[in-house]
UniProtKB/TrEMBL annotation:
InterPro entries: AcTrfase_RimI/Ard1, Acyl_CoA_acyltransferase, GNAT_dom, RimI, YpeA/RimI_acetyltransf. Acetyl-CoA binds at N121. Belongs to the acetyltransferase family. RimI subfamily. It comes from the Bacteria. This is [Ribosomal protein bS18]-alanine N-acetyltransferase. Keywords: Acyltransferase, Cytoplasm, Transferase. Acetylates the N-terminal alanine of ribosomal protein bS18. It is found in: Cytoplasm. The lineage of its organism: Bacteria, Pseudomonadati, Pseudomonadota, Gammaproteobacteria, Pseudomonadales. One of its GO terms (molecular function) is protein-N-terminal-alanine acetyltransferase activity. Gene3D superfamilies: 3.40.630.30. Its EC number is 2.3.1.266. It comes from Marinobacter guineae.
């Protein structure tokens, strides 16, 4: 789907981004369990509700369909988690949420957004590359996996000044 078509369907679908609140956690955990082989626990999410963290909910027709967690460290934003409910994937919402995160980080004085992604996560890597991220390194064995450990690709998008 070309970008303009994707974003038209997102707009028609009544999409809203708002700050995530602790009351969202049951919906978040439901999506998290469906999104990852090694999902975050409720305690990990609760630990992210602090000043240097920015948590976003993507809502469609008032239902939470995805979220993103970003940590700000000095002038660098670090995308720690972005996940969409399986039933809404492939509709352009993940890209919209990523762009929302990037716009907020840039507006709030960050100079770049950094992330780690599993080397096998082809759909996420395709999205990041398409949005202009480039790989700056690898962290060998960073993630647990079914076969032991898996490398992380470290990717960055620098904001133009
Ligand atoms: C990664 C994720 C957030 C993308 O969200 P999404 O709403 O499905 O993505 P979009 O519909 O906005 O797609 C954006 C781009 O991602 C890539 N993409 C998405 N799904 C894909 C798939 N199944 N195969 C290959 N590329 C895919 C494409 O480049 C796509 O652009 P296109 O539609 O122009 O081809 C979503 O797949 C997800 O929640 N995955 C599970 C959690 C996860 O892996 N998070 C990333 C951790 S680093």
């Amino acid at each position: 789907m070309s970008c303009p078509e994707a974003y038209q369907s997102v707009m028609e679908a009544d999409l809203l981004f708002r700050p995530l609140v602790p009351q969202d956690l049951p919906s978040v955990l439901d999506i998290e369990l469906q999104g990852y082989s090694h999902p975050w626990s409720e305690a990990v999410f609760l630990d992210c509700f602090k000043d240097s963290y920015h948590l976003w909910a993507a809502c469609r027709a008032e239902s939470l369909v995805g979220y993103a967690v970003v940590a700000y460290m000095v002038d660098e934003a670090h995308l720690l988690n972005i996940c969409m409910h399986p039933r809404v994937r492939g509709k352009g919402i993940g890209r919209q949420l990523l762009r929302h995160v990037l716009a907020a980080a840039s507006r709030e004085g960050m100079s770049q957004l950094l992330l780690e992604v599993r080397a096998s996560n082809e759909s996420a890597i395709a999205l990041y590359e398409d949005e202009g991220f480039r790989e700056i390194g690898r962290r060998p064995g960073y993630y647990p996996s079914a076969n032991g450990r898996e490398d992380a690709r470290v990717m960055v998008l620098r904001f133009s000044q």
